[in-house]
Design goal:
One of its GO terms (biological process) is methylation. Pfam families: MT-A70. This is MT-A70 family methyltransferase. Keywords: Methyltransferase, S-adenosyl-L-methionine, Transferase. InterPro entries: MT-A70-like (IPR007757), ParB/Sulfiredoxin_sf (IPR036086), ParB_N (IPR003115), SAM-dependent_MTases_sf (IPR029063). By secondary structure, this protein is of the alpha/beta class. Among the domains are: 83 residues, Winged helix-like DNA-binding domain superfamily/Winged helix DNA-binding domain (Arc Repressor Mutant, subunit A, Orthogonal Bundle), CATH 1.10.10.10; 192 residues, Vaccinia Virus protein VP39 (Rossmann fold, 3-Layer(aba) Sandwich). It is 36% helix and 15% strand. Strands 13-11-12-10-9-14-15 form a seven-stranded mixed beta sheet, sandwiched between helices. It has a three-stranded antiparallel beta sheet with strand order 1-3-2. Strands 5-4-6 form a three-stranded mixed beta sheet. A hairpin with a 5-residue loop joins strand 4 and strand 5. Helix 1 crosses helix 7. The longest helix is centred in the middle third of the chain and has 31 residues. The protein is elongated.
């Protein structure tokens, strides 16, 4: 057996993860990822793994592998300054990935804010900070995440990196193992949902840890069919001593609602931080600077009759459909990657409104109909309604149950094209902490007391060159 104190040629992160898994479980079995096979072959060429004689996908650790891990542990300094950050839970980037990230930061700066907790600990962005400090930078986008428990902070850090980074199966297994050891009483499906992985993967890791005695088996209960199944864990810290089923459901709902609120608050804060990095110049269409959009395009309308011609009451020039579609398409968008858009459309232009939503990068999710009470004109029907289409893109947070507005709102129409302020009030109520942009609107045209004068709204219209959206 090699001397444990003898220096080794240290394998890369992927190979090391495979070696650790093989030593821990007594064997390593490849799955579907090519990176696993490549890492195992490299570890084999270095003498750390032996291949099974019958199965080419099974590898066994050598004495050299065990000596390597022993040596690595003995060479790791125990001083406080050398300990990993409390939420640096994943293996470091490979030299190639680190170099690529460094080159990107040099070229474009830090695009994703570094996340901190209230105490100043980094939750996400250790490599970004390390690169910035090595380049002599003293400032970078920051976002402070508040109100999370220690367990929630670690789970959040794991989930972000698992979804962002290209990890091998062995590396993912290590992360899942740490989560299971930390919260063994939470079901595999719940952990899988939290970390963004398949629940079967979590179950397989759990079975291995249970067989090794590293975590306890979930308590089992007998189902209606007589089969024993793992019991679904119930959080009981806030439950009364003799809670009945009805009370249990109430408490469980309160827990779910709190988790939704925390998740929504976290997403809102991150989106706001990204929006602040957007481009806002007076007289120009903003770029990636707003998470909430409200637009009433000047649609070209069909003639009410062939004799009288088009509606001559427009107070602004109409825009062709292709110009409306091009206005906020692609990199011209004033909205962040995660955003919501409210788009006004007349009944005869519904198809065009859906096309604009899609061209601007949004998926249609729902609509609110405005009942104008008084009947208007129309070629096929006498118009009485307009519709506010709702589009969503990216990971924009959903609404808290019970806060949704109704799908129909009735108020008599007044001046041409003027929409009831009620709709803007609903948007402000739902997203009070988010930056909002209204297209085809000027602040000066709003009535005194309009909610959009509160400073949370910006505007862009035909007079944009005079200083709107600033």
């Amino acid at each position: 057996m090699p001397d444990p104190k003898k220096p080794f040629s240290i394998p890369g992160p992927n190979q090391l993860a495979v070696i650790r898994a093989a030593v821990k479980d007594g064997r390593f079995e490849e799955v579907t990822q090519p990176s696993d096979r490549k890492a195992a072959l490299k570890a084999n060429s270095l003498g750390f793994l032996d291949r099974d004689r019958k199965s080419a996908s099974i590898w066994y650790p050598t004495d050299k592998a065990r000596a390597l891990l022993t040596w690595l542990e003995s060479e790791t300094p125990a001083g406080e300054g050398n300990q990993p950050a409390p939420y640096q839970l994943l293996p470091p980037l490979s030299p190639e990935d680190y170099a690529a990230l460094e080159a990107d930061i040099i070229a474009r700066g830090v695009l994703v804010p570094v996340e901190y907790d209230e105490a100043g600990n980094i939750l996400d962005g250790h490599h970004r900070v390390q690169i910035c400090e090595s380049l002599g930078l003293v400032d970078w986008p920051r976002f402070v995440r508040k109100g999370l428990s220690e367990e929630e902070k670690r789970a959040h850090a794991r989930a972000l990196n698992l979804n962002r980074r290209h990890l091998s199966s062995a590396q993912k297994r290590e992360i899942i193992e740490e989560q299971l050891k930390e919260t063994p009483s939470i079901s595999s499906r719940a952990i899988a949902a939290r970390m963004g992985v398949d629940h079967k993967t979590v179950s397989a890791v759990r079975s291995s840890l249970v067989s090794n005695g590293e975590i306890p088996q979930l308590e089992k209960t007998e189902g209606r069919d007589g089969r024993m199944r793992p019991a679904k864990p119930m959080r009981t810290m806030f439950l009364p001593d003799r809670a009945n089923v009805k009370e249990l459901k109430v408490v469980a709902k309160q827990i779910r609602d709190r988790e939704r609120e925390v998740s929504r608050s976290v997403r809102t804060g991150l989106i706001n931080a990204i929006a602040e990095q957007g481009k806002v110049v007076a007289g120009q269409m903003p770029r990636a600077a707003f998470a909430v959009g409200y637009a009433d395009p000047p649609w070209q309308q069909e003639a009410w009759s062939d004799e009288t011609g088009q509606d001559r009451g427009l107070m602004y020039p109409a825009m062709p459909l292709d110009e409306i579609m091009a206005l906020c398409a692609g990199d011209r968008s004033p909205f962040t990657a995660d955003a919501i858009l409210y788009l006004w459309v007349t009944t005869n232009r519904l198809d065009d409104g859906l096309a604009v939503l899609k061209t601007w990068g949004f998926d249609y999710v729902s609509a609110i109909t405005w009942d104008k009470v008084n009947i208007g004109m129309g070629r096929w029907v006498r118009d009485r309604t307009e519709h506010l289409l709702i589009g969503k893109r990216g990971n924009f947070p959903g609404l808290i149950p019970g806060t949704q507005p109704e799908s129909i709102y009735a108020e008599p129409k007044t001046a041409h094209s003027r929409k009831p302020v009620w709709f803007a009030e609903q948007i402000e109520r739902l997203f009070p902490d988010m930056r909002k942009l209204e297209l085809f609107q000027r602040r000066e045209s709003l009535s005194e007391g309009d909610i959009r004068r509160n400073g949370n709204w910006s505007f862009w219209g035909f007079e944009a060159s005079e200083g709107e959206a600033a």
